[in-house]
Amino acid sequence: MSATQTLSLDEIKKLAVSALLSAGATQQQAEPLATAIVAAEADGIASHGLAYLPTYCEHLRCGKVDGNAVPVVDKPKPALITVDAKSGFAHPAIDAGFAQLVPLAREFGIAGLAIRNSYNCGVLGYHTERLAAAGLLGLGYTNAPASIAPFGGKKAVIGTNPFAIAAPDGKGGVAISIDQSASVIAKSEVMRRKRAGAAIPEGWAFGPDGEPTTDPDVALKGTMAPSGGYKGVGAGLMVELLAAAASGAMLAMEASPFSGTAGGPPKTGQFFIAIDVAASSGGGFGERVSKLVEAISAQPGAQVPGAKRKQARMRTASGVAVSSDLITQIQALAAQR
To answer: Which DSSP state fits 271?
Structure first.
């Protein structure tokens, strides 16, 4: 096992910002992404934390991400916001959109946000939980470069296409947070196994021949296994309709990969819906959700979706153990000019 060092959350953010700035991002682009990286580490989702930072930096340097991009916000309808991320990171575009989405949802009861020409938004549930913390029911959808074949096929058409929903607890927190992809496992987990030189469990992915594989290299040349077979493909298509078709972003099969340097900006998209549940429910939303949470929590071994992340936050508030080799790699990236 490689050596680790414990970094505070502030140290993680400073390290991330420094590396992103050195790779060519502006402060406006770097700050929101670094904040999300910290949240991923705090939530125990290492695959979307510092481990992904070298890829972000690589994509800034090769032009897959425009580090100088300034998101352009528009309001084509009273309760609909659109943001053109201009091939920059998704996080500043989402921040710009949320600044108007939240007050609009409170005013109209429901509001939507469509983001185009974007990039990997990291942990989707991180964004929907922000809406829940604002007292709104938050739904999120994000498409990704094609990696899942249609049921019965072998050629990828849609991405792992995560979707998420977060419910407010009425106290400025989150009662339930569901965040899952259309695939059995996130593609980033396969990439992480490849970097570690480890095999993947059978059932995660298929090779180009359509046969199951435990080799991450073969898996990355093939397709990801949809969660629940044809049902996972259906969920992925739902996300594609919202995050790509309805937002004006690239379809998964047209987008360049989130890995490697080939292909230019992926220009994928996100779609968020925020609902004022206090208005839509006629009152009592919090009590109904509390009953759901209690019914789940009362069963030995059962876990409320999102509870694991909350528990991780409590454990990591004083610091996160990070691979010493990864820290050295990121420090070297931060030192580059």
So the answer is: E
Q: Is 214 exposed, middle or buried (0-12, 13-18, 19+ CB in 10 A)?
A: middle
Q: Which residues are catalytic?
A: 47-48, 189
Q: How many residues belong to the chain? A: 337
Nearest to 276 by CA among 105, 121, 153: 105
243 DSSP assignment: I
C-alpha closest to that of 124 among 273, 270, 317: 270
Q: How far apart are CA 216 and CA 205, in angstroms?
A: 8
β-bridge pairing 137-142 and 110-118 = unpaired
Region 212-222: what's the mean pLDDT? 92
The CA distances from residue 229 to 56, 88, 189, 214, in Å, are 31, 34, 19, 18
Torsion sign, CA atoms 299, 302, 306, 308: positive
CA distance 66 to 88: 5
- Rg over alpha carbons for the chain, rounded to the nearest Å, is 20
Average pLDDT of the segment spanning 277-286: 94
The percentage of residues in the chain with a pLDDT greater than 90, rounded to a whole number, is: 88
Contact status, residue 30 vs residue 56, Cβ threshold 8 Å: no
Nearest to 131 by CA among 29, 22, 273, 333: 273
Cα 307 to chain center, whole Å? 18
Task: For residue 226, give the DSSP letter.
Answer: B
Indicate the pLDDT class of residue 305, thresholds 50, 70 and 90: very high
Which DSSP string corresponds to 136-193? SEEEEEE--SS-BPPTT--S--B----EEEEEE-SSSSEEEEEEE-SBSS-HHHHHHH
Q: Look up residue 186 and give its two tokens.
A: 């996130």
Distance CA(265)–CA(258), nearest Å, equals 9
**Which residue reads 């995050």 in tokens?**
243
189 alpha carbon, distance to own chain's centre: 13
Pairing between strand 205-206 and 223-224?
A: antiparallel
Reported as a single tens digit per residue, the pLDDT across 14-47 is 999 999 999 999 999 999 999 999 999 999 999 8
